Amino acid sequence: MSSFDDIQSPEIITNIGSKHPINQMKDFLLDLLSGFGFQEVHGPEIESEEFNFDMLNIKKSHPARQMHDTFYIQDKSKVLRTHTSPVQIRSMLNAKPPMAFTSAGKVYRKDDDATHLPMFHQVEGIYVDENVNFSHLKDLIHKLIHSIFGKDVDIRFRPSYFPFTEPSAEVDILSEEGKWLEILGCGIVNPIVLENCNIDSRKYSGLAFGLGVERIAMLKYGVNDIREFYKSNLDFLTQFK
Amino acid sequence: MKIHYKDILRFIDEKPSIDDLSNKLFQLGHEHEIEGEVFDMEFTPNRGDCLSVYGLARDLNVFYDVNNLIDIYEEDIEELELDFINKSEADCPNISFLKIEVEDQILEYKDYLSSYFLNLKIKKNNFFTDISNYISYELGQPTHCFDEDRINGQLVFDKKDLNEAFTTLMNSEIELEGENCIFSVNEEVISLAGLMGGKSTSCSELTKIALIECAYFKPESIIGKSVKYNLQSDAAHKFERGVDPSCHEKVLRRFIKIVQDHVKIKNIKLVKFENKEFKPKQIEIDLDKINNILGTSIDDDSYKDNLKKLGFKYESKIKVPSYRSDISNQNDLAEEIARIIGYNNIPNSSINIPKSSQSLVEQKDDKLRHYLIENGFSEVINFPFVGNKENNSISVDNPLDSNKKYLRTNLEDSLIENLLYNERRQKDSIKLFEFSNVYSSDVSRNVVKVGIIASGHMGHDYANFSKKIDHKYINNLFKALFKDNEFKCSLISRERLNTKIKNKIYYIEFNIEDLKDNLDIEIDNSLILNKFIKYKPISEFPASNRDFSFLVSNFSNIEKIFRLFKNMNDEHLKDSFMFDFYKNEKSNELKIGYRMIFQSNTKTLSDNEIEKSVSKILQPILAINGISIPGME
Question: The pTM is what?
Answer without folding.
Answer: 0.89
